[in-house]
Amino acid sequence: MKKLQAIRGMNDLLPRDSIVWQHLESTVASVVASYGYQEIRFPILEPTELFKRSIGEVTDIVEKEMYTFADRNGESLTMRPEGTACCVRACEQHGLLYNQTQRLWYQGPMFRYERPQKGRLRQFHQIGIEVFGLQGPDIDAELLLMTARLWRELGVAEAVTLQINSLGSAESRARYRAALVDYLGSRREQLDEDSQRRLDSNPLRILDSKDPKTQALLNDAPALHDYLDQESASHFASLRALLDAAGIAYEVNQRLVRGLDYYGKTVFEWVTDKLGAQGTVCAGGRYDGLVEQLGGKPTPAVGFAMGVERLVLLLQELQVVPAGLEQAVDVYVMASGDVQAQAFATAEYMREQLPHLRVMSHCGGGNFKKQIKKADASGAEFALIIGEEEARQQQATVKYLRQDKPQQTLALAELVRALQD
User: Fold this and answer.
1) Could you tell me the pTM of the whole model?
2) DSSP summary character for residue 6
3) What's the farthest any 2 CA atoms get from each other in the chain?
4) CA torsion sign, 116 to 120 to 122 to 124?
5) At residue 43, what are phi and psi to the nearest 5 degrees?
6) Which of 107, 176, 281, 340 could form a disulfide bond with 227, CB atoms 3.0-4.6 angstroms apart?
7) d(CA 43, CA 93)
């Protein structure tokens, strides 16, 4: 019989890795909550039309990468390839947008059919932030201050660099697009194959090309900021002033564009050189036209997404995962003699009195030597031994597994006080 395996590019998350994920997710949740953001959750499956209308039909995601299928009623469904469109759909459907301000965050799996590689999977996970109803550069700045704080909390601040740009309004982008196409069109044969295709479908993405010859051509191409409208230029200048005042270092990268059609004005990426080719760990920007594009009333919006897999790789690469995360157990409770029920009761008492401790009860029987071996293998700091005498006296014997200290027998109340230190 063929051995069953996970689908290529859709990986299992084992306990040794999940603890790092939990550390990252809990840190994010703590930071975003400190800024007053609330969590939203939405389905993995959405109508295919949602992504065609939001992302754009002439993008790699829609043309090549989406997991799309017809359900039993013949409706075309897609496993979400990104979260912003889903968030807009959910907020619009439930009346959270019109004349309101929302600061939201979410986390979960996304799906794209790509060639699996380190830091890029077919089922990947993102943490996203979306803000609706605020149009000034101050909210753009808040998002960047928030991410900067998150990097400090995680210990990766020195390994990431902020790049920012302004794509301007739809009208100014159209003018720049025409100038860029005119310049590159006469040099089509010098472009790489992907850029030749994008010249007709999505020419701004050529700015993001990794091909050295294409990048060399772009050195003499029209500059995006020469085509910015006054409002976008003023918005960008104000954003820079706020970042400067807050002491947030950044680089202006006029070739920074986002791969989705709905972005305008501010765009940004946090990048690292510690992960090879997959250097972007967080990216986003403004998408003021998307709500209207999806059938709602005009609503200013800005947001970003972080790749969880890449951030976990960065934490591990920099060796900034806090010590002790791998320790699953603090206290191991074992029974010596026919006192299993009393041992369970003691373990429950410890969980109630000391909820910050991780308490594991021995199960599966075995003699005292076997139980001590299991206690030691658990990584626990202490073993609590409940024998027949301890059970009668409502006591427990504390055996120190990581310290050279003699064991001692304590009443349960005394035990609680001892383990609080």
Assistant:
1) 0.88
2) P
3) 92
4) positive
5) -65, 160
6) 176
7) 13
As a whole number of angstroms, the distance between CA 160 and CA 169 comes to: 28
Distance (Å, whole) CA 274 – CA 380: 34
Q: What is the chain's pLDDT, residue by residue, as a tens digit (421 residues)?
A: 889 999 999 999 998 889 999 999 999 999 999 999 999 999 999 999 999 888 776 566 776 789 999 999 999 999 999 999 999 999 999 999 989 999 999 999 999 998 888 778 999 999 999 999 999 999 999 999 999 999 999 999 999 999 999 999 988 888 988 888 888 888 888 888 888 888 887 888 888 788 888 888 888 888 889 999 999 999 999 999 999 999 999 999 998 887 666 788 999 999 999 998 778 999 999 999 999 999 999 999 999 999 999 999 999 999 998 877 777 799 999 999 999 999 999 999 999 999 999 999 999 999 999 999 999 999 999 999 999 999 999 999 999 999 999 999 999 999 999 888 6
What residue type is 257 in one-letter code?
Answer: V
Q: Is beta strand 266-271 parallel, antiparallel or unpaired with respect to 382-387?
A: unpaired
Those residues with Cβ within 8 angstroms of residue 397's Cβ, 6 or more apart along the chain or in another chain: 384, 385, 386, 387, 390, 407, 408, 409, 410
Residue 280: helix, strand or coil by DSSP?
Answer: strand
Q: In 81-90, which positions are buried (b, 16+ CB within 10 angstroms) versus exposed (e)? A: bbbbbbbbbb
Quick one: how far is CA 118 from the chain centroid? 16
What gap in Å lies between CA 15 and CA 12, rounded to an integer?
10
Instruction: Tell me the two tokens of residue 277.
Output: 């080719």
If phi > 0 it is left, if psi is from -120 to 50 it is alpha, else beta; for residue 65 that is alpha
For the stretch 144-153, what's the b/e string if a residue is b when 16 or more beta carbons lie within 10 angstroms of its beta carbon?
bbbbbebbee
CA distance 202 to 267: 17
Q: How many CB atoms lie within 10 A of CB 193?
A: 8
What is the DSSP secondary structure assignment for residue 222, as one 8-state letter? P
- Single-letter residue type at 74: G
Q: 291 is written with which tokens?
A: 């709500």
Both tokens assigned to 244: 């400067």
| Exposure of 165 in the CB half-sphere (CA atoms within 13 A) | 23
DSSP alpha helix (H) spans, 354-411: 368-377, 388-393
